[in-house]
Amino acid sequence: MLAVERGAAPNTIESYLRDLTHVREFVTGEGVDLVRAQPAHLNDYLDGLTAGGFSAATLSRRRSALRQFYKFLYAEGVRNDDPSAVIDAPKKTRNLPNTLSEKEVQKLLDAAAGREGPDGRRMHCLLEILYASGLRVSELVSLPFGAALGDARFLTVKGKGGRERMVPLGVAAQKSIEAYRPHRKRFLPKKGSGQAQADRFLFPSRGKSGHLTRHRFGQLLKELAVEAGLSPSALSPHTLRHAFASHLLSHGADLRSVQQMLGHADISTTQIYTHVLEERLKSLVERRHPLSAKEGL
Questions:
Q1: From the candidates 6, 165, 264, 280, which is the catalytic residue?
Q2: Which of 29, 131, 188, 248 is deepest in the core (most CB within 10 A)?
Q3: Is 191 a catalytic residue?
């Protein structure tokens, strides 16, 4: 249902599977099958997560998985009730995302640009595209080869739920693609061993997926962080996505435009960046209000 009716991404389906498997292990220990679990079992499970120190975000995600699972069972007639309808909802606190300053991003880009050979050109290209577009890492590593052909001022990206969006690319990102293109063949498998599949991607790989994996890119990014003098533990591909959004907003972009470029279905997801807008407004008042100098605003 998730795959066919909702068009959920493989990573989303895997997350549901992990969450429901964890719940199943708990209720099985209580002597109940997951399909026949009652509200008391589900509340006991969530209470156990709370006592175990799990975050509110994890609890909300697990609760959402349960809600979707039992709604499906009810709709299909497997159950005549929905036990998840009465489970307690944890209070979800939204923490500000980790991000990078503009100087820190520039250090990363300079470190990648200083690398020689195919690996260096690929890494620099990955970073330039990621920071220029704010793509999810799964969208970045699986970009089709055709996405960078023709008018490379824009990328056509297929995101969550199969939704397509147009993302503009700056001159630096366009140049990095052109510099990487002659080295792309270096990462293709040998003929007859998955080359046809890998040749579909802008960042091909000899692995099973045919393209560079999220995990491998994360490893390469942490290695680059060390070269750039940054903390690898505080850096991930998602950190650069946050930097993209934060820096755009701090330089005058509106929240709706950032929502569209990030591929958020609901603007409430993008509103996590409102702290940037608040700082910008405060700075604007301090610099532009006629009474600010007199009253020390």
A1: 264
A2: 131
A3: no
Does residue 200 register a pLDDT over 70? yes
* Higher local confidence (pLDDT), 27 or 278: 27
Q: Considering the candidates 62, 124, 241, 242, report the single residue annotated as catalytic.
A: 241
Between 204 and 234, the more confident residue is 204
pLDDT of res. 80: 93
User: Two tokens at 84?
Assistant: 């998840």
Helix/strand/coil for 214: helix
* CB contact at 8 A, 57 and 15: no
To the query of whether residue 62 is one of the catalytic residues in this protein, the response is no
- Residue ranges and CATH numbers for the domains of the chain are 10-86 (1.10.150.130), 102-281 (1.10.443.10)
β-strand pairing of 154-158 with 164-168: antiparallel
Rounded to two decimals, what is the model's pTM?
A: 0.67
Q: Which of 146, 152, 108 minimizes the C-alpha distance to 133?
A: 152
Active-site option among 62, 122, 136, 247: 136
36 in Cβ contact with 82 (< 8 Å): no
Identify which of 46-60, 162-176, 259-273 has the greatest average pLDDT.
162-176
> What is residue 165's predicted lDDT score, i.e. its pLDDT?
85
Category of 143 on φ-ψ map: left (φ > 0), alpha (ψ -120 to 50) or beta: beta
> Does residue 247 have an active-site annotation?
no
Terminal-to-terminal C-alpha distance of the chain: 56
160 is catalytic: yes
Known active-site residue 241:
yes
